[in-house]
């Protein structure tokens, strides 16, 4: 006797209940997957926001006062400039230990030209940039064409440039600089337009920046979609845009309510936009990623690795010269002891900002974020009267945590 068994399909879920929950769960999972894939890119940005929020609370809001935000930009300008060049060096698979000594040497050279020999400051600035580029090119020649490891070459450069600094200054501090040169490190944009409670030019520049960033983000997303690349889910992308616009607007209002945007901030903005474009879109930037990510494959693809390495170090020398001018102008004097540990701060900024020890990974924006993390830590701990000994401990732990997070993230993605 046979039994006829009929399989019954489950009844459909009532609308708005199980089906809605499944859809919501799918959307949540999609957002989590998007965040997980982009954790390297946004992890330090989230960390920077948390650090700013914590120190704002611990300092009773002093951290975010307009005067302090302006000082934060001025005090950390040299680190951010160096971090851009150092990020490129690390992406190419190298390291540069000489940038601190080179900034001191360029500051000393500028002081000798303007203070002792009355050279016009624009001429002095141009000569200093050329000297920095030549110093970087010499090191790049030894590294790229003679095959000497960058660690050895730049370690030698650190000693040589420090010695030349003391020779130029004869062991003494030299200053003051001309007023026009001082404005590179301490100056602000002039005030124009109608009487308001804010700096009008700063407000205008902030709005232009916000529009530019939003258009750039939308353009990049469309381009990635055209090439069938992974992009952030729409909701996360909109959240990202809102966060960027909010942060830029807050900083703009804070700067505009004090003296306006510092001149060095405009220089930094030009560097960030220019180098960001080079690393994202230019052939030279792609070649830097290629030789750092897989040198044999890059050679087989026709990349001139020696030329690229040479130009990377030449560029680092020029940026070190610009940083040296900025810090000397801010201090209004050149000192034999200037630039101490600057190379370590630049390297730390790059690694905190997402650079990889193996090369081939990193962004200009990441370097800026890493530099800001260190800058906010320094400024916040100074406001809380934390001793310099504990500041070193905390910054060292922050660097270790950033690199450890990078290693963990690689293993997580790989698994």
**Separation, N- and C-terminal Cα atoms:** 54 Å
**Binned strand content:** under 5%
As a whole number of angstroms, the C-alpha radius of gyration is 25 Å
Pattern of helices and strands: HHHHHHHHHHHHHHHH
Largest sheet: none
Helix content: over 70%
Q: How would the global form be characterised? A: globular
Multimer state: single chain
Structural class: mainly alpha
Count the strands?
A: 0
Mean pLDDT: 86
Number of helices: 16
Query: Residue ranges: pLDDT <50 for 5 or more in a row?
Result: 1-24
Compact summary:
With 415 residues, the chain is mainly α.
SSE blueprint and pairings:
Elements: H1 18-37, H2 39-58, H3 66-91, H4 99-116, H5 121-144, H6 150-169, H7 179-186, H8 200-226, H9 234-256, H10 263-281, H11 283-293, H12 295-300, H13 305-331, H14 342-352, H15 364-383, H16 388-414
Describe this structure in words.
This protein has 415 residues and is an all-alpha fold. The chain has 16 helices and no strands. α4 crosses α13, α5 runs antiparallel to α6 and α7 (179-186) crosses α13. The longest helix is centred in the middle third of the chain and has 27 residues, at 200-226. The protein is globular and about 60 Å long. Residues 1-24 have low confidence and may be disordered.
């Amino acid at each position: 006797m046979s039994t006829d068994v009929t399989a019954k399909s489950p009844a459909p879920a009532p609308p708005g209940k199980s089906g809605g929950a499944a859809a919501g769960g799918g959307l949540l999972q999609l957002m989590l997957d998007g965040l997980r894939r982009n954790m390297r890119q946004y992890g330090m940005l989230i960390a920077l926001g948390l650090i700013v929020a914590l120190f704002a609370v611990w300092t009773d809001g002093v951290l975010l006062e307009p005067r302090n935000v302006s000082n934060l930009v001025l005090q950390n300008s040299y680190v951010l400039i160096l971090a851009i060049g150092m990020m490129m060096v690390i992406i190419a698979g190298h390291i540069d230990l000489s940038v601190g000594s080179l900034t001191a040497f360029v500051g000393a050279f500028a002081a000798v030209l303007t203070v002792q020999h009355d050279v016009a400051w624009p001429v002095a600035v141009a000569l200093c940039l050329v000297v920095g580029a030549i110093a970087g090119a010499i090191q790049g020649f030894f590294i790229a064409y003679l095959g000497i490891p960058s660690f050895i070459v730049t370690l030698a450069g650190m000693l040589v440039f420090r010695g030349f600094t003391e020779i130029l200054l004869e062991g003494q501090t030299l200053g003051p600089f001309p007023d026009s040169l001082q404005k590179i490190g301490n100056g602000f944009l002039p005030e124009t337009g109608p009487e308001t409670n804010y700096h009008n030019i700063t407000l205008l520049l902030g709005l232009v920046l916000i529009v530019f960033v939003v258009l750039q983000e939308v353009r990049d997303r469309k381009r990635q979609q055209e090439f069938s690349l992974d992009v952030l889910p729409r909701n996360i992308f909109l959240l990202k845009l809102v966060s960027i616009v909010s942060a830029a607007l807050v900083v703009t209002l804070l700067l505009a309510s004090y003296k306006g945007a510092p001149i060095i901030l405009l220089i930094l903005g030009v560097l960030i936009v220019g180098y960001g474009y080079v690393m994202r879109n230019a052939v030279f930037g792609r070649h830097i990623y290629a030789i750092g990510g897989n040198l044999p494959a890059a050679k087989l693809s026709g990349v001139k690795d020696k030329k690229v390495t040479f130009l990377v170090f030449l560029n680092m020398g020029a940026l070190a010269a610009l940083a040296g001018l900025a810090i000397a102008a801010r201090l209004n004097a050149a000192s034999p002891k200037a630039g101490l540990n600057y190379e370590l701060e630049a390297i730390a900024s790059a690694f905190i900002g997402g650079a990889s020890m193996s090369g081939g990974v990193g962004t200009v924006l990441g370097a800026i974020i890493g530099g800001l993390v260190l800058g906010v830590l320094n400024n916040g701990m100074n406001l809380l009267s934390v001793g310099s000994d504990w500041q070193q401990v905390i910054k060292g732990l922050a660097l270790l945590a950033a690199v450890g997070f990078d290693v963990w993230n690689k293993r997580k993605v790989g698994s």
